Amino acid sequence: MALYSKLLLAIDFASQTETLCQHAASMAQVHGATLSLVHVVEPVVTDSAFDTLPPLPVDFDDLLVRQARKRLEELGQRYGIAEQNLFLEIGVTKREILRVAEQQGIELILVGSHGRHGVELLLGSTANAVLHHAKCDVLAIRLESE
């Protein structure tokens, strides 16, 4: 019996997304597990108090979602991940990762980590937040600093 049968990889489409996907796909294969991907689009907050910034197009969030969906589907095809296992969420990243993991009965969440220390860690690493609040195991995959 495999230790994990349902894995969830949280991705942000940074330059090392392919490395994360390769690690996660290998783990899924070793465990004979189902791999799911989750990407979270955080809504862009526009505030008239910052009038020095150019106004964003009204459909800017929609554009971000469309672009993210396309990239998520491309990764799904490349790594053989079924469409029903691709999750594109809108909200606060750490909350949405945890919500999807719980709803899908995930046994292991995989997240990338740049291994930050001290003040950077205290100021809010998504990986750290997921690690401390998940109801399942979490594996932080160490990434090279960009």
Features:
five-stranded parallel sheet; alpha/beta; single chain; Rossmann fold; 5 helices; 5 strands; 146 residues
Structure description:
There is one protein chain. The longest helix is centred in the middle third of the chain and has 19 residues, at 60-78. This protein has helices at residues 17-31, 60-78, 93-103, 119-122, 126-133; strands spanning 6-10, 34-41, 86-90, 108-113, 137-142. It is globular. The protein has a single domain (6-142), classed as Rossmann fold (3-Layer(aba) Sandwich). Residues 119-124 have low confidence and may be disordered. The protein has five helices and five strands; from the N terminus they run βαβαβαβααβ. It starts with 5 loop residues before the first strand and ends with a strand. Strands 3-2-1-4-5 form a five-stranded parallel β-sheet, with helices on both faces. It is an alpha/beta fold.
